[in-house]
Protein backbone atom coordinates (compact mmCIF):
# COMPACT_ATOMS: atom_id res chain seq x y z
CA UNK A 1 0.00 0.00 0.00
CA UNK A 2 1.19 3.50 -0.86
CA UNK A 3 1.11 5.74 2.18
CA UNK A 4 0.59 9.49 2.26
CA UNK A 5 4.23 10.00 3.15
CA UNK A 6 5.17 8.33 -0.16
CA UNK A 7 3.45 10.96 -2.30
CA UNK A 8 5.88 13.89 -2.47
CA UNK A 9 4.76 17.16 -4.04
CA UNK A 10 6.50 20.47 -4.38
CA UNK A 11 5.51 23.69 -6.18
CA UNK A 12 6.88 24.23 -9.67
CA UNK A 13 6.14 27.94 -9.31
CA UNK A 14 3.96 30.56 -7.68
CA UNK A 15 1.11 32.66 -9.04
CA UNK A 16 1.56 36.41 -9.07
CA UNK A 17 -1.66 38.25 -9.79
CA UNK A 18 -4.06 41.06 -8.90
CA UNK A 19 -6.13 39.17 -6.32
CA UNK A 20 -4.54 39.86 -2.94
CA UNK A 21 -7.20 38.12 -0.85
CA UNK A 22 -9.70 35.30 -1.28
CA UNK A 23 -12.70 37.65 -1.08
CA UNK A 24 -13.92 38.86 -4.50
CA UNK A 25 -12.03 36.24 -6.50
CA UNK A 26 -14.38 34.82 -9.17
CA UNK A 27 -15.84 31.50 -8.09
CA UNK A 28 -14.71 29.85 -11.31
CA UNK A 29 -11.93 30.55 -13.83
CA UNK A 30 -12.53 32.66 -16.96
CA UNK A 31 -15.48 34.56 -15.47
CA UNK A 32 -13.21 37.62 -15.37
CA UNK A 33 -11.04 37.46 -18.48
CA UNK A 34 -9.39 40.76 -17.53
CA UNK A 35 -7.54 38.97 -14.72
CA UNK A 36 -4.04 38.15 -15.96
CA UNK A 37 -1.64 36.24 -13.75
CA UNK A 38 2.02 35.31 -13.94
CA UNK A 39 3.42 31.96 -12.89
CA UNK A 40 6.97 32.51 -11.67
CA UNK A 41 8.84 29.22 -11.77
CA UNK A 42 11.13 28.21 -8.94
CA UNK A 43 14.80 27.85 -9.83
CA UNK A 44 14.66 24.07 -10.21
CA UNK A 45 12.03 24.34 -12.97
CA UNK A 46 13.03 27.69 -14.50
CA UNK A 47 14.20 25.92 -17.65
CA UNK A 48 12.60 27.10 -20.89
CA UNK A 49 12.73 23.52 -22.13
CA UNK A 50 10.02 22.64 -19.59
CA UNK A 51 7.62 24.82 -21.61
CA UNK A 52 8.71 23.81 -25.10
CA UNK A 53 5.61 23.44 -27.30
CA UNK A 54 3.23 24.93 -24.74
CA UNK A 55 2.41 27.86 -27.04
CA UNK A 56 0.58 25.42 -29.31
CA UNK A 57 -2.23 25.17 -26.76
CA UNK A 58 -4.73 27.99 -26.20
CA UNK A 59 -5.71 26.82 -22.72
CA UNK A 60 -4.01 25.09 -19.82
CA UNK A 61 -4.91 23.20 -16.67
CA UNK A 62 -3.36 24.55 -13.49
CA UNK A 63 -3.16 22.22 -10.49
CA UNK A 64 -2.53 24.19 -7.32
CA UNK A 65 -2.54 24.18 -3.52
CA UNK A 66 -5.18 26.01 -1.48
CA UNK A 67 -2.44 27.33 0.77
CA UNK A 68 -4.52 29.94 2.61
CA UNK A 69 -7.24 27.55 3.78
CA UNK A 70 -5.43 24.20 4.04
CA UNK A 71 -4.76 24.58 7.78
CA UNK A 72 -8.48 25.07 8.49
CA UNK A 73 -9.22 21.45 7.69
CA UNK A 74 -12.32 20.07 6.01
CA UNK A 75 -15.85 18.80 6.64
CA UNK A 76 -17.85 16.08 4.83
CA UNK A 77 -20.46 18.60 3.64
CA UNK A 78 -20.28 22.23 2.54
CA UNK A 79 -22.74 24.94 1.43
CA UNK A 80 -22.03 26.06 -2.17
CA UNK A 81 -22.81 29.72 -3.01
CA UNK A 82 -24.70 28.51 -6.10
CA UNK A 83 -27.25 26.93 -3.73
CA UNK A 84 -27.62 30.14 -1.76
CA UNK A 85 -25.25 29.11 0.98
CA UNK A 86 -28.03 27.24 2.81
CA UNK A 87 -28.08 23.76 1.25
CA UNK A 88 -25.41 21.22 2.19
CA UNK A 89 -23.89 18.81 -0.29
CA UNK A 90 -20.93 16.46 -0.07
CA UNK A 91 -17.50 18.03 -0.30
CA UNK A 92 -16.68 15.86 -3.32
CA UNK A 93 -19.73 17.30 -5.11
CA UNK A 94 -18.24 20.80 -4.89
CA UNK A 95 -15.12 22.74 -5.70
CA UNK A 96 -14.82 24.02 -2.15
CA UNK A 97 -11.40 25.05 -0.92
CA UNK A 98 -11.96 23.05 2.28
CA UNK A 99 -11.04 19.54 1.12
CA UNK A 100 -9.29 16.48 2.59
CA UNK A 101 -6.39 17.35 0.29
CA UNK A 102 -6.24 21.09 -0.37
CA UNK A 103 -5.79 20.77 -4.14
CA UNK A 104 -7.57 22.82 -6.78
CA UNK A 105 -7.57 22.98 -10.55
CA UNK A 106 -8.44 25.72 -13.03
CA UNK A 107 -8.54 26.10 -16.79
CA UNK A 108 -6.82 29.31 -17.90
CA UNK A 109 -5.92 30.84 -21.25
CA UNK A 110 -2.33 30.88 -22.40
CA UNK A 111 -0.97 34.40 -23.00
CA UNK A 112 2.78 34.12 -23.44
CA UNK A 113 6.10 33.00 -21.98
CA UNK A 114 8.65 35.54 -20.82
CA UNK A 115 12.26 35.23 -19.77
CA UNK A 116 13.29 38.12 -17.50
CA UNK A 117 16.92 37.52 -16.72
CA UNK A 118 17.04 34.26 -14.77
CA UNK A 119 13.28 34.37 -14.13
CA UNK A 120 10.99 32.18 -16.26
CA UNK A 121 7.40 33.43 -16.32
CA UNK A 122 4.24 31.99 -17.85
CA UNK A 123 1.42 34.50 -18.27
CA UNK A 124 -2.19 33.29 -18.28
CA UNK A 125 -5.61 34.92 -18.51
CA UNK A 126 -8.88 34.39 -16.63
CA UNK A 127 -7.34 33.33 -13.33
CA UNK A 128 -9.27 32.66 -10.13
CA UNK A 129 -6.24 32.23 -7.85
CA UNK A 130 -5.02 34.43 -5.03
CA UNK A 131 -1.58 36.02 -5.31
CA UNK A 132 1.08 33.65 -3.99
CA UNK A 133 -0.76 30.41 -4.78
CA UNK A 134 1.67 27.47 -5.15
CA UNK A 135 1.34 25.87 -8.59
CA UNK A 136 1.86 22.11 -8.41
CA UNK A 137 1.51 21.23 -12.09
CA UNK A 138 0.61 22.57 -15.54
CA UNK A 139 -1.02 20.47 -18.23
CA UNK A 140 -2.34 21.33 -21.71
CA UNK A 141 -6.11 21.52 -22.12
CA UNK A 142 -7.24 19.10 -24.83
CA UNK A 143 -10.59 20.10 -26.38
CA UNK A 144 -11.36 16.67 -27.81
CA UNK A 145 -10.91 15.00 -24.42
CA UNK A 146 -11.66 17.73 -21.87
CA UNK A 147 -14.71 19.40 -23.44
CA UNK A 148 -17.73 17.11 -23.03
CA UNK A 149 -20.60 18.87 -24.78
CA UNK A 150 -23.27 16.55 -23.37
CA UNK A 151 -22.00 16.57 -19.79
CA UNK A 152 -24.38 17.45 -16.95
CA UNK A 153 -23.41 20.13 -14.46
CA UNK A 154 -25.77 19.33 -11.60
CA UNK A 155 -26.72 22.40 -9.55
CA UNK A 156 -24.14 24.46 -11.52
CA UNK A 157 -25.21 23.45 -15.01
CA UNK A 158 -24.73 26.93 -16.49
CA UNK A 159 -22.86 30.13 -15.78
CA UNK A 160 -24.52 32.46 -13.27
CA UNK A 161 -27.15 34.52 -15.05
CA UNK A 162 -27.07 37.48 -12.70
CA UNK A 163 -24.79 40.23 -13.96
CA UNK A 164 -24.76 43.11 -11.52
CA UNK A 165 -24.71 46.61 -13.08
CA UNK A 166 -21.72 48.59 -11.80
CA UNK A 167 -21.41 52.38 -11.49
CA UNK A 168 -18.55 54.56 -10.24
CA UNK A 169 -19.37 57.64 -8.19
CA UNK A 170 -17.63 60.96 -8.86
CA UNK A 171 -14.84 60.32 -6.36
CA UNK A 172 -14.10 56.87 -7.76
CA UNK A 173 -14.12 58.21 -11.32
CA UNK A 174 -11.52 60.79 -10.38
CA UNK A 175 -9.39 58.16 -8.69
CA UNK A 176 -9.56 55.93 -11.77
CA UNK A 177 -7.87 58.77 -13.64
CA UNK A 178 -5.17 59.02 -10.98
CA UNK A 179 -4.28 55.34 -11.40
CA UNK A 180 -4.70 55.21 -15.19
CA UNK A 181 -0.96 55.23 -15.94
CA UNK A 182 -0.21 52.22 -13.74
CA UNK A 183 -3.48 50.40 -14.43
CA UNK A 184 -4.94 51.50 -17.79
CA UNK A 185 -7.67 48.81 -17.77
CA UNK A 186 -8.59 49.25 -14.10
CA UNK A 187 -12.20 50.32 -14.68
CA UNK A 188 -12.95 47.30 -16.85
CA UNK A 189 -11.25 44.97 -14.37
CA UNK A 190 -13.11 46.30 -11.32
CA UNK A 191 -16.39 46.20 -13.26
CA UNK A 192 -15.86 42.58 -14.36
CA UNK A 193 -15.09 41.48 -10.79
CA UNK A 194 -18.09 43.24 -9.25
CA UNK A 195 -20.50 42.12 -11.97
CA UNK A 196 -20.14 38.63 -10.50
CA UNK A 197 -21.55 39.94 -7.16
CA UNK A 198 -18.85 38.64 -4.80
CA UNK A 199 -20.91 39.28 -1.68
CA UNK A 200 -21.31 36.30 0.68
CA UNK A 201 -24.58 34.45 0.08
CA UNK A 202 -26.13 35.62 3.37
CA UNK A 203 -25.69 39.28 2.41
CA UNK A 204 -27.30 38.66 -0.97
CA UNK A 205 -30.30 37.01 0.72
CA UNK A 206 -30.62 39.85 3.20
CA UNK A 207 -30.30 42.50 0.47
CA UNK A 208 -27.75 44.18 2.73
CA UNK A 209 -26.52 47.64 1.71
CA UNK A 210 -23.38 47.50 3.85
CA UNK A 211 -20.09 48.63 2.37
CA UNK A 212 -17.49 46.10 1.27
CA UNK A 213 -13.83 46.38 0.46
CA UNK A 214 -11.61 44.31 -1.80
CA UNK A 215 -7.93 44.42 -2.64
CA UNK A 216 -6.91 44.33 -6.30
CA UNK A 217 -3.25 44.92 -7.12
CA UNK A 218 -2.11 47.36 -4.41
CA UNK A 219 -5.47 49.11 -4.29
CA UNK A 220 -8.33 49.05 -1.81
CA UNK A 221 -11.70 49.35 -3.56
CA UNK A 222 -14.75 50.27 -1.48
CA UNK A 223 -18.20 49.45 -2.86
CA UNK A 224 -21.78 48.65 -1.95
CA UNK A 225 -24.89 47.20 -3.56
CA UNK A 226 -28.10 49.22 -3.45
CA UNK A 227 -31.10 47.40 -4.85
CA UNK A 228 -29.86 45.79 -8.04
CA UNK A 229 -26.90 48.11 -8.71
CA UNK A 230 -23.35 48.09 -7.41
CA UNK A 231 -21.68 51.43 -6.77
CA UNK A 232 -17.92 51.87 -6.46
CA UNK A 233 -17.34 54.44 -3.73
CA UNK A 234 -13.60 54.84 -3.40
CA UNK A 235 -10.30 53.60 -4.85
CA UNK A 236 -7.14 54.25 -2.90
CA UNK A 237 -3.71 52.81 -2.28
CA UNK A 238 -3.82 49.99 0.23
CA UNK A 239 -2.10 50.73 3.51
CA UNK A 240 0.96 48.61 4.11
Q: What general outline do the C-alpha atoms trace?
A: globular
Please trace the helix and strand order, writing H or E for each element.
EEEEEEEEHEHHHEEE
- Could you give the order of strands across the largest sheet? 1-2-7-6-3-8
Give the percentage of residues in beta strands: 25-35%
CATH superfamily membership of the largest domain? YaeB-like
CATH architecture of the largest domain: Beta Barrel
Given this structure, which CATH class of the largest domain is correct? Mainly Beta
Count of DSSP helices? 4
Give the uncertain stretches in residue-range form. Answer: none
* Strand segment count: 12
Biggest β-sheet: count, sense, barrel? Answer: 6 strands, antiparallel, barrel
**Helical proportion, percent range:** 10-25%
Mean pLDDT: 92
CATH topology value of the largest domain:
Elongation Factor Tu (Ef-tu), domain 3
Summarize the SSE layout with pairings.
Elements: E1 13-16, E2 36-41, E3 59-65, E4 77-78, E5 89-90, E6 103-116, E7 119-125, E8 134-140, H1 143-146, E9 166-168, H2 170-178, H3 186-195, H4 201-205, E10 211-216, E11 219-226, E12 229-237
Parallel strand pairs: 9-12
Antiparallel strand pairs: 1-2, 1-8, 2-7, 3-6, 3-8, 4-5, 6-7, 10-11, 11-12
Structural overview:
- By secondary structure, this protein is mostly beta strands.
- It has 2 domains: 4-154, YaeB-like (Elongation Factor Tu (Ef-tu), domain 3), CATH 2.40.30.70; 166-237, no CATH class.
- Helices cover 12% and strands 31% of the residues.
- It is built from 4 helices and 12 strands; from the N terminus they run E-E-E-E-E-E-E-E-H-E-H-H-H-E-E-E.
- It has helices spanning 143-146, 170-178, 186-195, 201-205; strands spanning 13-16, 36-41, 59-65, 77-78, 89-90, 103-116, 119-125, 134-140, 166-168, 211-216, 219-226, 229-237.
- The strands form 3 sheets. A 6-stranded antiparallel beta barrel has the order 1-2-7-6-3-8.
Amino acid sequence: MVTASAIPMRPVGYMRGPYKQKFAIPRQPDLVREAIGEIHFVAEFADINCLRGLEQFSHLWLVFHFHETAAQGWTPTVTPPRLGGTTRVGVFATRSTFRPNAIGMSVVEFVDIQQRGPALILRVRGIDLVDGTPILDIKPYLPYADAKVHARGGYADSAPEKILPVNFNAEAQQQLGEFAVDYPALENFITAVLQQDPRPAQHVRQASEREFGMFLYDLNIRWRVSGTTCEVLQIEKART
